[in-house]
Amino acid sequence: MSSAFTSRTTSCRAERASGIATATRRYVDAVAGTRAKIYDTRKTAPGLRALDKYAVVQGGGENHRIGLFDMFLIKNNHVDRAGSITAAVERIRRRGMAQKIMVEVRDMRELDEALALKPDFILLDNMSPDELRRAVERTAGTVPLEASGGVTLESVRAIAESGVDRISIGALTHSVKALDISMRVASRLPE
Description:
TIM Barrel, about 15% strand
């Protein structure tokens, strides 16, 4: 492998990581003064998960999950397959595994069902800031709440001001613009 290829590959990784860290810092700064923490998702580039996760932390964010083994995240497709949130959570708990459980909910009815099950976290999927505020009031601090879905730099402050604990943003790693880093080395030719 040529040293030019290796150097460019390393540079591309550094540019990607710098772009992720910079984007993360922008989100972290946008929610400053609120209780919300910025989290990534598992949506990373193939082969670069560790680098992407490291870059998020360097930008001031937090890592959600490294892989599927870290936590059970019960999403709508799991609920549909099991028949209900309750059935999905009970199926996991019967296995007696140590991983924490996060339940994704789409509305207040699902939130009430999840609250009754006392999961470790509840993910509020694609809710408006007003819906998030209602969820925070209804939950009254009994379980950490995470907002996710369609979060942008323009919307993140309003989401954070709803009172949620966590905001997860897949775009930090799956849609980041690499930071353009270049270095020119001038060499003098012998006279």
